[in-house]
Design brief:
The chain is an alpha+beta fold. It is built from five helices and 14 strands. Strands 7-14-13-10-11 form a five-stranded mixed sheet, with no helix packed on it. A four-stranded antiparallel sheet has the order 1-4-5-6. A hairpin with a 3-residue loop joins β8 and β9. α4 packs antiparallel against α5. The longest helix is centred in the first third of the chain and has 16 residues. The relative contact order is 0.10.
């Protein structure tokens, strides 16, 4: 809720735009905005919670208590550059409650894709998959994926299973991506020497993701390294004769900037 209205900023606008932002209906929101006095607003809020109380007539309102518990949990566990309740994970948690299962990959890195995602190994940004056995009016066995492509702790919800793939952003990465210029020297018929310049990073710590694929897109080699204060990274990789593509993604852990590129080469 970003549009200006006549609702007082404290405490009623906060109640409308933060506390109940994800659970209030459009009709209720419109009705609340038309109220003129604090007494009318207080009565509206009281009735709002009353109609949602699963045990009316008792001192406790379990729905209200659970709702504010979810907000507190979201603010404690999902905050990044924005409050936890504003994040995608916070919104889903507040709306639907805790998932039945969480598959968390907080550091990203090596990931074996399931067949429905194309199979094969890749390197990912941090991501989480939340599974709900059932969500009313949505369905059963609901899986929601969140990805942190900026590696800042700000996970965003996505329906694209490729969103978490770090190699997806080669040469067209999110905002901060710049080019890196890896080189490859084929050595006989038993492999190749790869070299990745790192002089631009100075004494920064850098996460290095490397993948080598065959002409038919099968992953031949893949690894992850963290380097610090090196002018270049070099490694010999044993490979059979054939045509390959080297994919490189770098993440500067000090500045958050990314670098990515790819190059084709042949081992004869």
């Amino acid at each position: 809720e970003t549009q200006a209205d006549s609702t007082p900023a404290t405490p009623y606008r906060k109640w409308l735009t933060e506390d109940v932002a994800y659970i209030i209906t459009d009709a209720e929101r419109a009705a609340f905005k038309k109220l003129q006095t604090d007494d009318e607003r207080e009565k509206f809020i009281e009735q709002f919670w009353l109609v949602r109380d699963p045990t009316p007539g008792t001192p406790e309102n379990e729905y209200k208590e659970e709702h504010y518990r979810r907000i507190a949990y979201a603010n404690e566990h999902f905050a990044s550059r924005i409050p936890g309740w504003k994040t995608d994970r916070g919104r889903i948690y507040i709306t639907y409650g805790p998932p039945d299962e969480i598959d968390a990959h907080p550091s990203g890195g090596t990931y074996q894709r399931p067949p429905e995602e194309g199979g094969g190994a890749t390197y990912t940004f941090p991501f989480e998959q939340w599974r709900y056995k059932f969500i009313q009016d949505i369905g059963a066995n609901i899986i929601i994926e969140f990805v942190d492509p900026t590696m800042t702790g700000e996970y965003r919800m996505t329906s694209d299973p490729m969103e978490k793939d770090a190699f997806r952003y080669l040469n067209s990465g999110p905002g901060t991506a710049v080019a890196v210029t890896p080189s490859v020297e084929a050595v006989g018929s038993n492999g190749a020497q790869i070299s990745i310049p790192l002089d631009r990073y100075g004494d920064h710590q850098v996460n290095l993701y490397v993948r080598i694929s065959t002409a038919d897109h099968r992953v031949a080699k893949a690894f992850e390294e963290t380097v610090h204060g090196q002018m270049a990274f070099s490694r010999f990789l044993a490979l059979t004769p054939g045509t390959y593509r080297l994919n490189v993604v770098l993440k500067d852990l000090t500045t958050g900037s990314m670098a990515a590129n790819d190059v084709s080469f042949e081992v004869k």
